[in-house]
User: Fold this.
Amino acid sequence: MEKKVRDLEEIRNDLDSLDRTIAELFEQRMRYSAQMAYAKKGTREPVYDKNREDEKLADLTKNRSNPFIVKGLEEIFIQIMSISRKYQYHLIHQRDRYIENYFSEVEDLVMFPDTRVVYPGVPGSYSEMACKKFFGADIDNYGVTNFKDVAFALNNGDADYGVLPIENSSAGDVTGVYDILLENDVCIVGEVFVKVEHCLLGVKGSKLSEIKVVISHPQGLMQCAPYLEKLGVEQISVENTAIAAEKVAMEHQTCQAAVASKRAAELYGLDILEENINFESSNVTRFVILSKKRQYTSHADKISISFSLLHESGTLYNILSHFLYNDLNLSHIESVPLPEKQWEYRFYIDITGNLHDNAVKNALQGVRSEVADFKILGNY
Assistant:
């Protein structure tokens, strides 16, 4: 006997009725979640209880033989519980003692006549340009050999602020800088953008046809890769573009050239063999301004955070949804595998907002309770 096929419109009507019931039950569940929020606030219990949620998922899916239904129930209730947590954070507006204990709000960055700024490299580097663009030409500044030395100078009290490149529009994140932010007690308090216009620099009288070796920072070489490959030269990495120019000037070999700025050519007496050799004409590097003081200005509008997550289905989505539910814009995300921890990743995220905003506090409280190794890198 053939199974009777129901009328399509009849099925749709039944589904509509069931969906309305589900919507009403969801609203009822949120009312219970609100009651739970205030109860937890009174007992100071955390909003997020992973063991409780795991037990609930196990109970809801037990004795169900259809794996599709099991997977669907897990997905639905993971999202329902995630939404419930966000609703609870929104309702109770708990003081964020993490922000209160670690950060101070100021009207403007503190500057004194003897304020010192440290940057990686030597005069003529793009880092020096970033320093002068942010602080002004008269600021007391000096260069150090590498990126880590900037953090050391801040930690030792040798400088009040530091400048580091963190991201390039064509070559991506600058290797090692995020590690420095995590490993040192420093805070991002500002940012500045510098247009990168690389030139090929040689000693006086050298010719382009003679160049066999080109020296620069790895990012500089990367940003000029098509040009250098066409030139067919050996490429050597050094700590900084201006250090490369200084090295070419000191060694005075007509077969050597540096990828660096026009300012570096002027400072070290080099000829510009070719201008604008980076493959992207709108090449821009973003520099961050660092301080030992964990401070943020009242007009700061970007927040950088980091945290680690297991490589499990839905975990990143649930974390990012905290920003969605608080109407916060996510402007940058980067993931890096954790060393010696297979399938675990550290994420670096930039969002818009200020640490005094309630929406920001709600979102960050939610993220912090559900991740490992959470850190606010700065609000600027």
Observations:
- Residues 35 and 88 are 9 Å apart (CA to CA).
